[in-house]
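Revision sheet: structure tokens.
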Amino acid sequence: MESRLDQKPVVAVVYVAAMFMAVMDTTIVNVALPALGRDLHARAGSVGLVSITYLVSLAVFIPASGWLGDRIGGRRALLGAVGVFTIASALCGVSSSLGELVAFRVLQGVGGAVMTPVGLAMLFRVYPPAERVRISSVLALVTALAPAFGPILGGVFTTYLSWRLVFFVNVPIGAVTFVFGGVALADHIPAHPGRLDVTGLLLSGLGLGSVMYGISEGPSQGWSAVPVLATVGAGVVLLGLMVAVELRVANPLVDLRLLGNRMFACATSLYGLGSVAYLGALFLAALFFQDALGLSAVKSGLTVFPSAIGVMAGGQIVTRALYWRLGPRRIVAAGLLIIVAALVAMAQVDARTSLWPVRLIMFGLGLGVAFVFIPSQAVSMATVTKAQTGRASSIFNAGKQLGGAIGVALLSTVLAAVGPTQENAGHMNVHLTAYHDAFLAGAAAAALAITVALAIHDADASTTMTRRRNPRTAKHQAEEPAVATKARLK
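Predicted:
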């Protein structure tokens, strides 16, 4: 399908809307789990499957997203995924049993797994490297806004209306996105994407899915539990086989050779490690504010929300003032130091601390995240060819999803190991040290990422380090040669 509309804003709008739904869905549902469990008469231990199956489904199907986008075209793949996600969301909302809800969450994960990698590949095909920092600031805002906004919306729906709305909220967004994309998106089908690498699909999908399941269940069941050890072990073996097989295939589904590209490998690692610290911290902060400090779900969400404002402010600073002057290496390293400082500061918060300093800390966390995520996303495809963009996007998004899951698992494990409660004079009291130690674990993950940031070579990102010019100035500069030519002719 041909479209006369400028594809830059069209692709950006469709992708941002799709990514907002997918990212928000990872946090908005968690708030509703107790309420939906009671309503569906489900056992407390089984309600977690509603979140886990979605994450596992994402992990299983993300590797195939790049090939699918190349095979049937970005427009068809993206709109098809939006349609599947939207319909699955509606089905989740009308579920009458836990089994139905879990099945529809798997379907929802299929749509989410395809939406974000295909949309990102389309975005980087229409935006040249010089404009990717600006669009990456929008993407980083959505990445920060959606998980911060999710608990607020989920808390309002669950407390005052119905848990079913946490799924229905996706329906109008998805429907409008689907219609707009159907009218405005132009198609693009790369030549000769190759046959589907079925072996790679099975090994990568089952391997990532198993690891994701084990990581998600480890904190609650215990890392020595047989199901956890079995799934993580099986996942590691399958991924090891996948590496051995994919490096020998001419057209691999998961093109691991891309990780030999220094800039792409650094950007993917940084986004993954950044997600460990940030998404893990958001998850822990929600527990800390509600279980340790006694805030309501809504007030907890509002206390986390300044992190999104910090991302907005950081995005303006990075894109308008810093990136073209300093380059990604120093900005990302500085951002990671800010994240470390923010999480260390969170480890000092207790019941006597005013909420305003806490909100300021969350703002600082968002500021640091902007400094990390925007340059990392902007340079991720700087040295990747257009033909490789689809499969590179799949790897990049898999790293981001895995990083978020590891972050939640890591901080949850530290919290459980130390113990969130302790007995004192026959009464169980909140054990703040457990939460503090978990925040420090997130800080350690961010500190570890600094070594990766220092491996970046700014020269590799030179095509993205173009100063953003005022449109009027650019037009004036473009007209000057023409005026000078006319003067010479006279």
